[in-house]
Specification:
Elements (H helix, E strand, L loop, with lengths): L2 H18 L9 H11 L3 E2 H8 L3 H13 L3 E5 L7 E5 L1 H4 L17 H25 L1 H19 L7 H7 L1
Antiparallel strand pairs: 1-3, 2-3
């Protein structure tokens, strides 16, 4: 099997899924991710939210302004420091129901053993990508993982090292 063919097939599948789910308020997309985070923990500052999402504040502000304009969130000055704006969901934001991705059932064409094999293949590819990231810049990679651990612990009291995904990378 040709690696280039497999690579382009994977890109095509990814692009197709993105297009089909573009207007689905999917939590993996920009505005949906913010709403999903705020459903778990409101009253975050812009700085905190940018840290959680691992994006720059100016990029985040653009998305936040769209959410404000559409009535999903509001900003309020912190009672401790009036210069800090905290982000809260509005009733409309709380009422957002996240839809499952349109094509979540595409895997129904596979039987259970094929799904397990596919899962193993995805795990191998994910692990390989992470190994390459680590090889390219070990310090930057270690820092990235450490920052993710700290953010999850700090804001969601969650330990990434307990996740199946993280254990896969540590093997």
């Amino acid at each position: 099997m040709n690696n280039e063919f497999l690579y382009h097939k994977l890109i095509f599948i990814n692009e197709s899924l993105k297009k089909r789910n573009a207007n689905n308020k999917n939590t993996s997309r920009g505005q949906g991710r913010i709403l999903a985070i705020l459903k778990h923990r409101e009253g975050l500052s812009t700085k905190e939210l940018s840290e959680i999402l691992n994006i720059k504040v100016p990029s985040l502000n653009e998305t936040l302004n769209k959410l404000i304009k559409n009535g999903y969130i509001r900003k309020e000055a912190s009672s401790e420091d009036k210069r800090v704006l905290l982000i809260y969901l509005t009733d409309k934001g709380r009422d957002v129901k996240f839809k499952k991705p349109k094509d979540i059932d595409i895997f129904d064409c596979l039987d259970e053993s094929q799904k397990e094999i596919f899962d193993e293949c995805l795990n191998l590819i994910s692990k390989e990508l992470h190994e390459r990231l680590k090889a390219d810049n070990p310090e930057k990679y270690a820092k990235m993982l450490q920052e993710r651990k700290e953010v999850l612990k700090k804001y969601f009291d969650c330990d990434i090292t307990q996740s199946e995904w993280y254990r896969l990378l540590e093997k």
